[in-house]
Amino acid sequence: MTSSQHNASAGGDGIAADWVARSLASVWHPCTQMQHHETVPLVAVSHGRGAWLYDHDGRRYLDAISSWWVNLFGHANPRINNALKDQLDKLEHAMLAGFTHEPVVQLSEQLKALTGGVLGHCFYASDGASAVEIALKMSFHAWRNSGHSAKQEFVCVRGGYHGETIGALAVTDVALFKDAYGPLLRPAHVVASPDARLAEPGESAQDVARRAARDLERLLQERGPQIAAVIVEPLVQCATGMAMHDPLYLALVRALCDQYQVHLIFDEIAVGCGRTGTFFACQQAEMADGTAVWPDFLCLSKGISGGYLPLSLVLSKEEIYQAFYSSDVTRGFLHSHSYTGNPLACRAALATLAIFEEDDVLNRNRQRAARMTAALAPLAAHDKVRHFRQRGMIWAFDAVIDDAQAAASFSRRFFAEGLRQEMLMRPIGRSVYLMPPYILADDEIDTLAARTLAVFEQTMAGH
Q1: Please, what is the Cα angle at 145 between 143 and 151, to 5 degrees?
Q2: Last residue of some domain: 358, 376, 401?
Q3: Which residue of 154, 171, 284, 403 is surrounded by the most CB atoms within 10 Å?
């Protein structure tokens, strides 16, 4: 039996089975070993509403991971829908080279204001990896324009993830994504992670942060004149298993970058837009003198458009912008793609920012987070759970599995059991995480917590 035939039969009769079979015959799905769909059927989604996705057979699935961390305010959100409908009748797209338009100007101004004017220039792309590429290229080029052409090296954090294009993958340290393409990549320096789970007996999360910062300092002492930038995921390294660290690390890295004249890039693609409890994750850190911690470049994507349309951007400081400002074309930042600053995507982002303000989302999320953490208490106390952790609207824990074969298949088995219990969850290795949309009602929070426990126990019993 072919994989298409197997999934067609597993998906049942009718429309759902037809879409599954046709998808497997023509669509190469992302981040997927396609052969696994011989045993784990695809779900043919019909529509979404709020925190739920619905298939063609009428089953619904609680979207516990915001459809890969993008859907902040629910599927088919009426306010974002209306904004896009209005924009469709005005302007669907215009090139941003030599032209501009209202949505991109308004979005840039609002994002600048959210940084207190510190990051005053916004460059647009379509996806997170592209934003990282832009920040890396900008850093390299800014140093060259400033007479520091030796600064060509980059530093990333162990276990960090920044995307899967060639440049972004070079500063990613997740073997699953990187190893196959090693020969194509420019080497980067990898420094210690501040992951609080690495604490030695008697150490605090801040102690781990200081230890990791010292590792970076040793590298900068040796290679500072050659290093262009350090790239960090503030507060949570997501793709390595939701590794959380103390905000102190961000302040220490900022101070080191200032000391050794190295740019600092904050990749807030996954952790920005309120996910960690503040709009920007870096807002939870402060320097020794109490001032705010801002990077030279800040990358946003995922939730910025509410999960509606591909959009990413890089916010940068004035001095970065000025390094390119010249009558000489070769000193300009000559990076582009056809849909840069697309009006529809920018309008979705403006509608998303409006919801943040109108609904006092960050304060309401603190209440949701407190209820969710309390509801997850049985999981936190479970004897097969280690390192239960939470930051803003992210929860994670690690499964204790002694059998290597069971550990290797844990994520797939958990995902399949989750679907059986009408939950969309996708663990990273043995790390189970929740990143739900910001709209959950109290009963949905209770349902999410209870089903997560049930899925975990069933998965653990099954191995």
Answers
A1: 25
A2: 358
A3: 171
Domain holding 366, by residue range, is 360-462
Amino acid at 394: I
Q: How many angstroms separate the most distant Cα atoms in the chain? A: 67
Write down the pLDDT at residue 463. Answer: 61
Residue type, 283: Q
Residues 275, 376, single domain; the answer is: no
- Going by their DSSP bridges, the two strands 423-424 and 227-232 should be labelled as unpaired
Identify whether residues 104 and 216 lie together within a single domain: yes
* Position 65 in a domain: no
Tell which of 307, 329, 358 closes a domain: 358
- CATH number at 365 reads 3.90.1150.10
Q: Are residues 340 and 413 in the same domain?
A: no
CATH number of domain containing 298: 3.40.640.10
pTM of the model: 0.95
The separation between CA 189 and the C-alpha centre of its own chain, rounded to angstroms, equals: 22
Specify the pairing of strand 423-424 against strand 52-55: unpaired
Residues 365 and 350 in one domain: no
Model pLDDT, residue 12: 45
Same domain, 284 and 388: no
pLDDT at 10: 40
Taking the chain (463 residues) in runs of 10, the rounded mean pLDDT of each run is: 38 75 89 84 93 95 98 98 98 96 98 97 97 98 98 98 96 94 96 98 98 98 98 97 98 98 98 98 97 98 97 98 96 94 98 98 98 98 98 98 90 94 96 98 98 97 78
Query: Same domain for 374 and 385?
Result: yes
Task: Determine the Cα–Cα distance for residues 311 and 332; give it in Å rounded to an integer.
Answer: 23
Q: Are 217 and 192 in contact (CB under 8 A)?
A: no
List of residues 6+ apart from 307 with CB closer than 8 A? 66, 67, 70, 71, 72, 73, 75
Q: Which residue has the tokens 């399949």?
A: 416
